[in-house]
Specification:
Layout: H1 6-21, H2 28-45, H3 51-68, H4 74-107, H5 123-139, H6 148-156, H7 158-161, H8 169-178, H9 183-215, H10 224-255, H11 273-279, H12 282-293, H13 303-321, H14 325-343, H15 346-351, H16 354-373, H17 377-387, H18 396-404, H19 406-415, H20 419-426, H21 434-459
Length: 471
């Protein structure tokens, strides 16, 4: 089940609202119980056979969190910490990387007979979320939760369960037991959710149709213009697809009184790759910064050690996204760019005009998404050759994609810019004038319009699964 489906919108969500809000607010445990039950059902709809994997992850993090809590013997606390790390990453490694390891060993003549392994939905997200809880408890940055059902609710909460954002326990610890739902927050959350739904159904899916059509072709027979159009379409698709899910997750959380942190901050307006990663998938980049990069020494060590730390982070970041060499190369590409900005061309880049800095980031990021989207490294290399004009074919498909989808291209370019932020800065927050009325009512009316258009798309069968579900 996904947020952009009729099953979710017409049945799951109304049933949850009915069961949840029929319970008086003072019975917080009852409301939490309903939310947990629906969250587990939501996950089971994606594969009931993997519900025990999620519950096992919850149990491991709950028990290890108890062991890692301050006040216990240091040996017990360390055992709790490393138990969570080894068991959590071991579970993730088996489901996500065992097949990849086996395939590469077989190329070296070492055969491992493994059963068919299907990746549970969202395992990378809930594994990292559970680990952050135990690590923060060990460090004293978050309280130890002694109620196993509250730990289960934190890990399994359905808005962010399968595709993030990765929520820190310290962000929602107080809200699990003491949040206050209100009509105002529900309204804000609904507007945010519907804007995310519109981004997914009207923008990401349209760009996905173009990207799928282009990347389905052999690059050797692809014209340069077609290759660039396909790369640009996927660049927009992956942003609007993933940021749409984050918008919907944040909106759903707000409806139930939770305040998740932002996961995207208009990354395509960045003026450097370093800035891009401060704006893209913020919860993941901050996770690796706080739990891998800084513990390794961060930038406090020698330049050589700093480069090693950076390389480790980006190798792990690439592998987190998928068990394939293209993801390793994708992580390596960003390591080279970030290391280069830090040590070689960063100061020179800062002196260039804004338009050149922006163009540099877009080209670098677009190249990374070609790697990310390609089925293997050979295809990616051939695709890059096509982008340089070394392929074949004509430009007819590129012209068709631009003309047929010109409204979606235009909307994507506008939506990728902080237009909403610019308008809000020019409209008063309070008052009774026309500008204040626009600020108050325009988002709500626009959200209803997006709901109508999205429903038309859904009813016509236009639907793509979220890209980040596979991670």
């Amino acid at each position: 089940m996904v947020f952009s489906s009729l099953l979710f919108l017409l049945f799951f969500l109304p049933a949850l609202f009915l069961c949840y809000f029929c319970i008086p607010r003072r019975f917080r445990a009852g409301r939490n119980g309903v939310l947990l039950a629906f969250s587990l059902f939501f996950y089971a709809c994606g594969g009931v056979s993997y519900l025990p994997v999620l519950l096992c992850s919850v149990a491991v993090n709950y028990l290890c969190g108890l062991m890692a809590a301050p006040g216990r013997a240091q040996a017990v606390r360390r055992a709790g910490l490393w138990g969570a790390v080894v068991l959590g990453l071991g579970l993730l490694g088996w489901f996500k990387y065992a097949g990849f390891l086996s395939a590469n060993l077989s190329r070296l003549g070492v055969r491992l007979d493994l059963p068919q392994i299907v990746l549970p939905i969202g395992i990378s997200f809930f594994t990292f979320q559970g680990l952050s809880y135990v690590i923060d408890v060990y460090r004293g940055d978050a309280p130890c939760q002694r109620n196993p059902f509250y730990v289960a609710l934190y890990v399994a909460l359905f808005p962010q369960l399968v595709a993030g954002p990765i929520v820190r326990y310290s962000t929602v610890a107080q809200e699990i037991t003491g949040r206050e739902e209100s009509l105002s927050q529900f309204s804000q959350g609904a507007v945010r959710f519907l804007f995310g739904l519109g981004k997914k159904m009207l923008l990401a899916n349209a760009m996905g149709e173009i990207a799928d059509a282009v990347f389905a072709q052999p690059p050797a027979f692809m014209a340069a213009a077609t290759a660039w159009v396909g790369a640009a379409a996927y660049t927009l698709q992956i942003y609007f697809d993933f940021s749409a899910y984050s918008d919907m997750a944040i909106g759903l959380g707000r409806m139930f009184g939770f305040h998740f942190l932002e996961n995207f901050d208009y990354p395509y307006i960045a003026q450097s790759v370093t800035e891009f990663w401060r704006r893209w998938h913020i919860s993941l980049s901050s996770w690796f910064r706080d739990y891998v990069y800084i513990p390794l020494g961060g930038s406090r060590r020698s330049p050589a050690r700093n480069l090693l730390n950076l390389a480790v982070v980006w190798l792990l970041t690439g592998l987190w996204h998928g068990a394939a060499w293209t993801f390793v190369l994708w992580g390596g590409w960003f390591f080279l760019l970030l290391a280069g900005e830090r040590l070689v061309w960063g100061q020179g880049l800062a002196r260039l005009p804004r338009i050149f800095r922006h163009g540099y980031v877009l080209l670098a990021v677009m190249a990374s998404w070609v790697l990310f989207r390609s089925p293997d490294a050979a295809y990616a290399a051939a695709y890059f050759q096509a982008m340089l004009g070394l392929g074949g074919g004509t430009d007819g498909q590129a012209v068709y994609c631009l003309l047929q989808y010109w409204p979606e291209w235009t909307a994507c370019l506008i939506a990728a810019l902080p237009v909403k932020r610019w308008l809000e800065a020019r409209l008063p927050e309070e008052g009774t004038g026309f500008a204040a009325a626009v600020r108050t009512w325009f988002p709500k009316l626009a959200a209803l319009a997006l709901l109508t258009l999205s429903y038309v798309k859904l009813a016509s069968g236009s639907f793509n699964p979220f890209i980040y579900f596979q991670f």
